[in-house]
Amino acid sequence: MKILILGGTGFIGPFQVRYALDRGHEVTLFNRGRTNRNMFPEVETLIGDRNGQLDALKGRNWDVVIDNSRANPDWVRMSAELLKDAVGRYFYVSSRSAYADTSRVPMTADAPSFTYETAGIERGSDDLPYGLAKALSEREAQKIFVGRTNIVRPGLIIGPGDETDRFTYWPVRIHKGGEVLAPGDPSDPVQIIDVRDLTEWMIRMAEGDHVGVFNGVGPFNPRPMAQLLYGIRAVTTAETRFTWVNREFLTDMGLRPYSDLPVWRPPTEGREGFARFDLTPEVAAGLTFRSLAVTATDTLEYHFSRSSERQAQLRAGISLEREAEVLAAWHASR
What we know:
The structure is a single chain. 34% of the residues lie in helices and 20% in strands. By secondary structure, the protein is an alpha/beta fold. It folds into two domains: 2-154, NAD(P)-binding Rossmann-like Domain (Rossmann fold, 3-Layer(aba) Sandwich); 169-190 and 219-275 and 291-333, UDP-galactose 4-epimerase, domain 1 (Alpha-Beta Complex). The strands form three sheets. The protein has a seven-stranded parallel sheet with strand order 3-2-1-4-5-6-10, with helices on both faces. A three-stranded mixed sheet has the order 7-9-11. The longest helix has 15 residues, at 130-144.
C-alpha cells in the first residue's frame, strides 16, 4: 500500500512511518523539510508547505493520505481538493476537542461537534478556537472525500516523544517520591491514548476498508484517577504516598484541572462524558491498548534520555514548591 503522510516528523508522525514501513508499506512524506529532516533517509520526502505550496503533490497517486495538521481548515481544504482524484481515502487526525458538548454518558462519535454558532464565533474570523478549527477541518475533508474519509478524534496523546509533558508530569513526579498531591476524587475517570496505540491503529485501519468517525482514547473501560496514579507508582521504586485533595479546595487555591494538574478532568456539569467514551466501534475497528505499566515505563525512559536542562523544565504541572504549599494549606484546613 502507498501511504502519503502530511507532516511525519513531529510527535505522532514518526510512529506512523515506522509502523507502516515495518508492515511493508511504501511511505511518502510531505513537509517543509525543516524539522528532523534526516529522521527517515530511506523515505521519500516531498518538500512544500500546507499554506498553498502543494506542487510537489501533483501528478502522483497514493492509496491513503494521513493528515496530521494541527487545526487549519484552509490547509485541509487545499490538500483534499488537490488529492481527491489521486488518493483513495483521507485520514484526518482531529481531536476530542472538536466536540461541542461532552455531557453525554457514554460519549460516542455522533455527539455534536462545534459549529460557528455553538462556538460563539463569527464566520470569517481569522482567530478560531482549537476545537472549532478541528471540527471545520473535519467537514472540509468529509465534503471533498465523500464516503472516503476517516476522522480520528484522539484525547490526550501520551508516551515517549511527547514534548508537552502533560502525562509525563505524573511519572516524573511520582518517581521523585514523597507526598504527592492527588487531585479530586480517586474515582474520577481518565481516558487518554498511548501514541503507539493511536498511530498503529490508524495504519491498520488504512489496510482495511474502514471509513467514518472514530474516537482515539482508552482504555475501553475508563481508568479511575487512583488507578492511574497507583499504576504509575508500581513501575517506580520511589517511596510515594498520595494525598487526595478535593476539587473545591484546589479551585480555591487557583489550580485548574487539565492544565495545572494535567490529565485530570473531573466529570463536572457539562463534562460528564469527557472521559466516558463507549469505544465499542473503535475496538471493532482494531483499536488496542498497551498496559499503563508499559506507557509509564517508556515515558520515564524517554524523559531521562533528554538533557538535564530539559528534564528540569517540565512544560506541564506544578512545581514542587507550589505542590508543597497547597498540601500544607490542605492539611492546615483539616
